[in-house]
Each structure stands twice: as C-alpha cells, then as structure tokens.
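Protein modeling request. Please complete all fields; requests missing the sequence field cannot be processed.
Requester role: graduate student
Desired output: 3D structure, token encoding
Chains: 1
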Amino acid sequence: MKVTIDRAHVAPTRYWTLLEDGRVRCDLCPRLCRLREGQRGLCFVRANLGGRIVLTTYGRSSGFCIDPIEKKPLNHFLPGTSVFSFGTAGCNLTCSFCQNWHISKSREMDTLAETASPAAIAKAAAELGCRSVAFTYNDPVVFHEYAVDVAAACRARGIRTVAVTAGYVCEAPRAEFYRWMDAANVDLKGFTDSFYRKLAAGRLGPVLDSLRYIRHETDTWLEITTLLIPGENDSAAEIQALASWVLDELGPDVPLHFTAFHPDWRMRHVPPTRRDTLRRARSIARETGIRHVYTGNTIDPDGQATYCPSCGSVLIGRDGYALGAWRLSADGRCAACGTECAGVFEDLPGVWGSRRQPVSMARYAGHGT
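Delivered output (369 residues):
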C-alpha cells in the first residue's frame, strides 16, 4: 500500500535488507514484506522511505492509561501493582477476532491522538507511582524502536517493562527486544497452523520459537494467554496438545490463561465463550501438569486464584482484577507449607485494585526527546 507519510514521526529502523530489484525487505517479522518506495507493510506503520524501512509512528500513541497488572494478564508479576499502559496503531497479524481492532487495525493516523517521548513516559510512570510500563493494546513488535527506547528510559528510573504480544517476530529483533523486557504475556492464539493461517494470516511455528526463546534464553518473566473461540480452537484435543507442549517445552511453572471470546471485529457471528468451556480447558491443563492455570474475561473466583502447587492452599485470591487473600511470604513461598511459587513478587502485594485511570501526557510533553 502506497500512502502519504507524515515525516514528523518517522524514525529509522535497523532490520531491513535492500533487494536486487530495488525493493526493501522488512526483516522485523516473519512476513518479510517487500516494499517499493512509499509503500507500507501489512502492519501499516513501517514503510519504505528513501530506500530504507522506517517506523512512521515513533512517539505517537492511541492513549495512555494506568491499569492493574492483572489486566495484561499477568498474575505472577508484581501482583496488585499499577502498570502504565499504552499502545500505538497497526499490527503484523490480521486476526479476525481482534478485541482491540479499533487500534490494531487502524489505518487512520488520527487514532494516534497523543505524543510522548520515551523520557516523558518514564517520568510519568515514576511520578504516578507505577511499578512498570506495558506495551499493549496493539503489538509492540510493530513499534519495536519506540518500545526499546521507552524501556531503556524506564530502566534508568528503576521502572520495569512489560510486553503484551503475539510473539510474531524474527530472531535478531527478538533478541534485542527481550534484552529490555522484564515480563511478557504472549498470546498463543491457537495450537494449529491452520488456525493461524485461516484467522490471523500467520504461522504457528514462529510463535512457538518465541516462547521457547523467552523461556530459556532470557530473564523475562513469561505468561501465556489463549483466547478460546467456539468451534475454532476450543476442542479438548487442541487444548490437551497445547498444554502438553507448554509442559514439555517450557515447564510446569509458566502460567497459562484461557480467556473468553466475545463477538467482535469480523467474527460477530460467533457466540461468546461459555464459562464451562473455560473451566474444562483449565481442568485439562492442570491435569496435564501445568501448575498455574487461569480463566479470564469471566466471573470465576476459583479459576482466577493462585494455588500452592504442593498443599493446594490459596496463595492469592482475586475478584476480577482486585486482590483478595494473600498468603505468600516475603520471599514468595506458601505461608502454609513453604513451597516456592514461581513468579516475580515483592514483600507485600500492591493495592491498586481494579481501577482504570486515563492519563493525559500534556504535562510531560516537554520532557526529553
């Protein structure tokens, strides 16, 4: 697609190759878009400008908000704390079931209503008492350079960073990206290549590669989310296969979230996920050997609590995104039996609750470049 590019928010990128026919190949994600001058990739935010790939939305966002960390969802990373969240526009997958389609599918740059430098974002997060900053709402893969710069600014202030991503990224940029991420929730959309090709125009293999890489080659805390869509990826056989792969390839301590689909974007004809489907999936995964399995986008206190893998005691109770019971010691162990609970915990839980607080960046706009 060839469109006018606003040069005010253009930033150079590192992952591209000039081809013999004059096109430039974007080497950020497995799509490997080959672009002529002025063309944008499928993500819409990376383009060929002057014979190189540039990011066209650097410093621009679709909005800033303080969320509970549990909303990402991350249940074993600084529970109860607030996270400064933002996204940009565009995506490198084409999920027909996208729940944030007005952002990720945006082709209107007016969606990016706010501007903020990496330094301004880090300053805002610090002053607002957020323990972390999340790249979310759309996939940070497509705004790689902006995300990495924000993460560097946050690290300088002692603020951690969180990626909410589909994990659809090439090897070299993936390595750079996860050097800066403290936690990630990867959206494992299904467990068949046919699902990815049919509903997301992608492939399963690169996502599995990313999961293995994060788990075994980085210090990034990892959790996984699968949105269960009726008739598409919710069969007992597929859930069993997914859980078995997680157990064998990643280990039993990687938390797995099964969340409810609601009709949206191009799948408004599909009914919402039944609660008993989520509970069945959780049961299958737990019986397979995954220690921490959760249900989401539904009311299910049992499926949202964290349990000790040894004695079965409730370690962290939850009511939606708000914490209830807390029975972890200061070093992250079960108060009843002393078994360690995998995760990133502080001495005491946060007290942010379930609030969602929009943030205007106007007061921070002049901070940094």
